[in-house]
Here is the input.
Amino acid sequence: MAEGIKDRVAIIGMGCTRFGEQWDKGADELMVESFTEAIEDAGIEKKDLDAVWFGTSYEEVNVGKTAIPISVTLKLPFIPATRVENWCATGSEALRGACYAVAAGAYDVCLALGVEKLKDVGYGGLPQPETQWGTRQRLVEPNKTAPGTFAMMATRYFSQYKLGPEEGKTMLAHVSAKSHANGARHPKAHLRRAVTVEQIMNAPIIAWPLGLFDCCGVSDGSAAAIVVRADMAKDFRPDPVYVKALQISASSGEEMLYTEWDWTHIEATGLAAQRAYDETGIKNPRDEVSMAEVHDCFSITEAVTMEDLQFSPRGRVKDDVMGGRFNLDGAQPVQPDGGLKCFGHPVGASGLRMIYEMYKQLQGKAGDRQLKDPRIGLTHNMGGIPSVNIVSVVIVGL
Amino acid sequence: MIVATALDLRPDIRAADIGNSIKAGTTGLLSAIDAVKAGSARNVLLCASDSRVGKAGSSQEQTCGDGAAALLIGDGEAIATLEGSYSLAYDFVDYWRTQGERYDHSWEDRWIRDEGYSRFIPEAISGLLNKCGLQVSDFAKIVYPAIYPREYAAIGKKLGAVESQIEEPIFSAVGDTGTAYPLMMLVAALEQAKPGDKIIVASYGNGSEALYFQVTDALKTPGDRRGIEKHLASKKELGSYTKYAGFREVLSVDIGRRSEDIGDTKLSALWRERRMVLGMCGSKCKRCGTPQYPAQIICAKPGCGAVGEMESYRFSDKKGTLFTYSGDNLAPSPSPPTIYGVVEFEGGGRSILDITDADLDSMEVGMPVEMTFRIRYHDIPGSIYGYLWKATPGRG
Here is the structure.
């Protein structure tokens, strides 16, 4: 019987670059920056590493294939290095590789590093998706983008729960306003300006009904984590953060192909979260999860994720959003660092950036965003579109 | 051949492309009728289609239109039977273009009008009347292209036709649709015809062909055809000529670097998947009956999961309803926003499809949609146009 990885792996060091349009930096500068911070934070040296997991998604506009970019950039001493890619869950997948290897007893000290240099694409948003779904799908792919596919979830959510456009957009505006308020307090965030609900509501439409402020930024960035066997963690630092669960769920295709899925929730999020809760021993996520960084690629994604994670009752997230439950001073703060909304989404780095915030919060080092006595932090990534995707849920705690 | 694939026709159905002259529509029709009469084919589907782009500033820019008509010719009960025909072929070079040229050249308009258009059509119709031993007065309608409106009426007058016999031209509504034009006018004439009527339809282009049809009692049987009348009644204004010129790539419209990043077209994969891509055929699970698009090997229905028990299932002829949608200003388009949505098909199955000929403001969840075969993209470096079935709001 599989035992899972709860409390078998600890994070002893992390690094995260400033996220943003870093025209003057390539992926190599970003990698060196997050790596240097991580090993200094852990108090280790490069030679202490047993193996490396490297996450990057858009290799074609970025670093190229394989883990060679990290081994060469960091001048790793011929140690095992693996490149992983799971779209927006790539950073979490890198962490998963490192954690599961340590939990398996194969290694003592591993590095997970994610990086994405998106601002060499040459146009706004993520690269055009036709060629990213494979040769077969490319032939039948409609002319769509990420905002449009998530906008369809908003359209359906509004329709199913009988929210008028104004009412629905108001709810979503509160999601983004909360994140902007938090991001404004984070020195490493890309977008550091608080915005009002009114500004959000009046912004240009990107994909109806989503406006500019319903969409996350597009940025360059890197984040890294050093993980070790839990029983050795305190040799490195007094306040390691323990991995409670690290679950992935990949769509079976039924949402896309079978007609019963309702487009107002993410099937894989619910399943990955439930597995992570079971592994951690969480019975009531609404009360037991202290804080979360979730995949708010779009405001609607965050809203339905609150329901999928069982933070809010199904179809009722509006009450919690409008009631401030997820604000920094609310009962269950979400996106305390500003989320993808303010950090932007360098795809391979985002998962580790979320962990970085949970790690700092749990250690009490989150500056003026510091939450009071958080015990359990959850991160969530979702790669793909609402109808077919891959979701990671990571739970960390003290 | 793409039409045969789009219609998901069996590959052993003979398919032929006829072109190079704007009278190819009637030439094709006569060939089809000959094949049926000769007994070498039982049913022939004839599709005449033209997309005519005139050079900016030219008279063709003003007069040409895009259109299509399709007729089914068979040996069974017919709504109209061909009773006679007369063909004229002249190497009359009025419009021409050589290899690699996008736009036509033309000789002097007055010469085309007086020596070509105004002569060939009456000559073909008179030839037909002589051949059949009939008078103009025997016909309820005489339809021929109205390329030059004044001479159009003069031809009728010259033939001795009264005004009611000359079919109201669709020229002013759709323009000169070339190959498709005479067949579109025939369809329009049939829509107004009564059983027992005799109709002449004549084409123009490198001569002329005149065909004499006898309308039968079967015309009374109402079909669900949209024809010319309902298509025109449900037309949608494009709003600006610039948009049209952009669509037709007459005007080079900048739709951003994103539009250049669409990837290439793998022709070997397209060939392999042609029924799925061009014929919109998905699969239907033989065990649980769930239709799925794109086609699957293993059934997606939770709890079924049958392996390799799929049969081909065509979605292009199914009606659908819109489950959700968006209007996307980021997706590259000469006419933003790009509208797409999730379509649920009658009988099961769903897919995210481009939605074309739609206004974002008039869309709503639950609205009916139907499928239409369109260009999806232009792969410029590969010089390939990608085609797909898209959804469109029901035209009524």
